[in-house]
Amino acid sequence: MALYETSGGRQDFLLLNYDNVDFFVNRSQFSGSTTLNDIRTIKSSLTYINKVFKYNGNNILLFDCDQFLKDIYACEIGNKSCLCLLMRLDNFTDKNKPLIKKLLARNPRISQESLGLIITSHSEIKKLVFDEIYLSPRGVRRLLREQGLYGCRFPESGRIQYYIDLELIIINVLKGKKS
């Protein structure tokens, strides 16, 4: 998965809108999305990975990306409804697939092929130009990238929009790293 692949200078991103800040994610990081129904809490030592839901007859393990972003970035949203992004194993890099497989193998009753991510329903696919994205300053770039934050942009609305890497965020949660 390339975080910087482009087609004519524009790339599809998923924009997640909160009351005070926005996030954008490269569209290549997930395979689809669906509504969330029948969410159940399961026993788990992982704070943000403790829910499942039924999709196409399979139990899908959920990473609560919405709650993670609210906790880490102190962002809120008036509407509490959520959607689910689906990340198949092939959406993860070869380096991180074994850790995701190990996570999914913990419970034989959940799908071994996909991980779901709870996101705000205030989201949309947009084409963005990479020239509009400001990378993090050189002195902190490596540290921020390791946390899944690549940069930001400042659209005409004047709001800040952070460019995040869902895979790195999930991996950091699995490894117990604090953002």
Structure description:
The chain is an alpha+beta fold and 179 residues long. The chain has one domain. The protein is built from four helices and twelve strands; from the N terminus they run ββββββαβαβββαββα. A six-stranded mixed beta sheet has the order 9-1-2-12-11-10. A hairpin with a 2-residue loop joins strand 5 and strand 6 (58-63). The longest helix has 9 residues, at 65-73. Residues 1-6 have low confidence and may be disordered.
Summary?
The protein is α+β, with helices and mostly antiparallel strands and 179 residues long. It has four helices and twelve strands; from the N terminus they run ββββββαβαβββαββα.
Number of contiguous helices: 4
Question: What is the mean pLDDT?
Answer: 88
Helicity range: 10-25%
Number of strands: 12
Relative strand content: 25-35%
Query: Major sheet, described briefly?
Result: 6 strands, mixed
The H-and-E topology, N to C, reads as EEEEEEHEHEEEHEEH
Which regions contain 5 or more consecutive residues with pLDDT less than 50? 1-6
Q: How would the global form be characterised?
A: globular
Number of domain modules: 1
Structural class: alpha+beta
State the end-to-end CA separation.
Answer: 22 Å
Cα gyration radius (Å): 16 Å
How are the strands ordered across the major sheet? Answer: 9-1-2-12-11-10
Topology readout:
Blueprint: E1 10-17, E2 22-26, E3 32-35, E4 40-41, E5 51-55, E6 58-63, H1 65-73, E7 82-88, H2 97-105, E8 114-120, E9 123-129, E10 134-135, H3 138-146, E11 149-153, E12 161-164, H4 166-174
Parallel strand pairs: 2-12, 6-8
Antiparallel strand pairs: 1-2, 1-9, 3-7, 4-5, 5-6, 7-8, 10-11, 11-12
